[in-house]
Amino acid sequence: MNQQLFNHLYDLLKKTTVPDTATLKDATAQLQQVLVNPECIPVLFELSVVSPESTIRQLAAVELRKQVNSDEKSPWLKVPVEHRAAIKKRLLEHLLTEQESIVRHSFARVISAIASVELPQGQWPELLPFVQTICGAQSPVHRESGAFILFTILEVVVEGLQDRVADFLRIFNNLLRDPQSVEVRLVTLRALGTLAGYIDIDDKVEIKAFQTFIPQMLAVLSESLTLDSDEGARHGFDTLSTLLIMETPLLSKHVSEVVTFCVQAGSKVDLDEEIRIMALNALVMTIKYKKTKIHNLQLAPHLVDALMPLLMERDTDDEDEETPARLGVRALDALATSLPPQQVFPRLHELVTQYSHDADSNKRKAALMALGVVMEGCSEFIRPHMNQVWPFVDNGLKDPDASVRKAACTAVGCITEWLDEECIERHAILIPGLLQLTADPITQASACTALDGLLELLGDIIDSYLPLLMTTFAQLLNTAPNKVRAVVIGAIGSTAHASKEKFLPYFKETIVQLAPFLKLEGEGEEEELRGIAMDACGTFAEAVPKEEFLPFYEDLMANAYQSVQSQSARLRECSFLFFGVMAGMFPEKFIPYLPNVIPAFLQSLKLDELGDNATFIETKGQGDSSDTPIQIIESKIDEIEDMDAEALLKVNSAIAIEKEIAADVIGGIFANTREHFLPYLEDTALVLQGLISHYYEGIRKSAIQSIFTFIVTLNELSNPDPWVAGAQNVVPLNDNVAKLISHTMPEILEAFDMEDDKSVAAAICQALADATTKVGPALIKDSFDAICAMCLKILSGKSMAQVDPDQGEEEESAEELAEMDSFLIGACEDLVSSLASVLGRDFVTPFANFLPLISQYYGPKRAAGDRSSAIGSFGEIITGMKGGITVYTAAIRQVLMQAVQDTEAEVRSNAAFALGVLVENSDIAWTKEDFEGFLFRLRPYFQVGEGGSKADFNARDNAAGAVSRMILTNASLVPLESVLPVLFGALPLQHDPLENRPLFRAIFALFTLNPNYILTYIDTLLPVFTRVLDPNAPDEIGDENRAGLIALLGQINALLPGKLQSSPLAPFLS
After folding, report:
1. Model confidence at 790, in pLDDT bands (50, 70, 90)?
2. Alpha carbon 579 to chain centroid distance?
3. Rounded to whole angstroms, what are the CA distances from 696 to 69, 756, 817?
4. Mean of pLDDT over the chain
5. What is the pTM assigned to this prediction?
6. CA distances from 1052 to 750, 1029, 1042, 1059, 1065 (A)
7. Sequence-ordered strand ranges (E) for 360-422
8. Each residue of 523-561: pLDDT tens digit?
9. Using an 8 Å Cβ cutoff, are 254 and 213 in contact?
10. Residue 658 belongs to what H/E stretch?
11. Shortest CA distance to 209 belongs to which of 245, 259, 172, 246?
12. Sign of CA dihedral 473, 477, 478, 480
């Protein structure tokens, strides 16, 4: 052995333990230079076994493991064979004699590193028998060492171990029940979590064997909760998390036990709070990844019972602090978004009712917190029952306890996000109540946050509140702390958004009042305040006349550009949003800023999210071609014993959100600046391409949406010929557009197939559907089969976003869906409709696969939203396929005959539209009996009283459109004498004005057939004619119908001289 090198390395390792930064840095640099010498391996080994200090032994073992790696050029292989054999022999001997646990663990990791190199080559045959022997040794320390070696060997994924799973299970079966040592049991628990990765999804025997371990694994994990150190519990919950996300169904037989364990541990107030949080985090994962089992086991009501008391516990204003109450909220949110609302909300409503009337203010607060958090997942289910929910909120806003009032404000904010129409109807109660709470320092921030969400919905309704709102907000800006000022400014922005030009009297005074906030340079609250002020200025630009905003434009752009160069991710994010608004409102003035602004976007999009730990990230690709997009790939970290790798790689969420916003806004900037963006298009597209499979769902979604915006915009700039429906003779695209599509679509579709987040999958469906209808069949001609395959998966409930990781084929999707599942399916149905639109009759054959899948969502147990979406998609598909639908007319008609008599007006409305276009487009000989059946079912649609709902009136308009299409198809089959009074009595069509188009075409056809059909009802029709021809009103009939109506007026005037001369229609007679 090189004694000089031994002494030198000893000194360097000694220096790394000195609590002096300069010394540590110098020693580390020298170590990096010295350790490239292969002679270091035997020297490091000697240091690890003979050094008197345990810290040096441990550090030497760590460095030895780093040298012995699995790379083909491993320095270990340069050590002579006889020296390697000696090291291995002595390593196993010293493992048994080492007294310090941390050093033994480091030895075990050296052993696993050597094993990763030698076992695949058939070397070191004595290792596994040795390990098996000490796993059965008398000494608990030796058994723990054996278990830890197996754990570390399994962790490095050594080739060939897959064949020994059964052997390892037999060993672990004894160790997991070790009668003497909890350390043995805990290490075995970790080892089993690693061994799980070796079990093939198709190996039923090993899966069944592993499943028998689960109860005892939970028992060991339960035991770890009471230990002095939380390290065992942390490792145990890590193991549980690993099993939860695996595709191999190892936990599937014991989901109920897992849920019970997590609930009990999370609810024990005498346990350490950090351990409770671990348990509740595991519960959240269980709900998300085992939702099908939880659904089938009907566990949701029991979970609601268990979670509600958690919401009574202490909370904190610190956004980064985890508490059991906060995890209880998160678990309720997971329940509401993962499971059908029918399983969650009824029981929750019962408890909310009980809690709301309780004398304990903590219970009243919990009731309102629960109401707010479940809105995202249960809003459509709750919508019809809001009259039963509002009293809880109203009472909460007036509760004598401030914490309850704050919770009521939070609930209002959640409701505004998901049930906007219901909130608008409630404005006369909510706004005064919330404004009153802005005067209380305890509730003013929560009240302003709720107002922020409510005010932006109000539109013209806000006019009567403007003076009071702006007076209140101005006072708060002068007196409130910065944290409150930030939410006040947000509420001012929402006020401007709703009031539009009526905000002008307050505009200049407000922007002057915000000016000091735009110059703040502090961190934390000052940073947030500056960012929110910038957001508000962007909203002002959209609200007031452009000429009023322009004097402030240059200064605000300069401020935003200064912010985008800052070290603050939050300020950069707000700058990107501001740039997006400016590009939309003032594209010509924004264009000169592109050379400075776009590099800032690209710099943000290339950031990694690991903040100070960026050196641990390995990047792939340079972004200089479509084949090498910039990507962040799996980080490479030297795993050191007792290092919290999860903390090391904790995502910097601020940077992730910044990138999400940048990726989202950049698409709009291209769409608004058009050809001026072209110099930056390729670089930007390449960076976005590299984010398509990013691990953060928000970034994936924004990148994909912007890529589709790029495709659409670039296609528009190429002045393409109008596309023609059909798969044959597709209108070719511009070469640059085709290149962009060929480079991005395969990767998007691959990501689509692997997407496990419902919101991202739905966004891809929506963006692809929109781009398809704009670009035409050329967009999908090379990817049609892949798109169809993905749509079929989603409609079958089998996409990765819809199934649990370990869900088997035998587990059918439930008829009751979580609302997020319904949203995804609805988006997929829209995508199928777009395919029908661009392919027309050529969609006939593929539609055979889609028809039964869409039809299944119109079933007796389906939610009204699912039924409505399915029937609505039929209407769009029929419209797209035109005569091609004839093959399926009988099957669709059968569904529609039920749907037109549905209990829900929204479903009936869509059914009436679909029935009308089915009649119009089907190439079959309809009979009088057919039409009589249709008219009989549509007749009740026209009987809507003054108190009818919006959906009832929409249904009436769609029924009018359906009758009009029947007249256009074959007027002789329609009993006009009885039908026309009802049809014309429903005019004007104000709730679905597009139905005016078939109506007017029917009017023209009737007049041609017999003028008296129209002249008889002329007094009813003339006000309708006047309305749709009003040049100041939105166009509801289209240019062709408008010309036809003007021609009709001339014909009527010839038949009824003087009838029109004195009417508002006279100008159209010339």
Report:
1. very high
2. 24
3. 31, 11, 25
4. 92
5. 0.88
6. 60, 16, 15, 8, 11
7. none
8. 989 999 999 999 999 999 999 999 999 999 999 999 999
9. no
10. helix 653-673
11. 172
12. positive
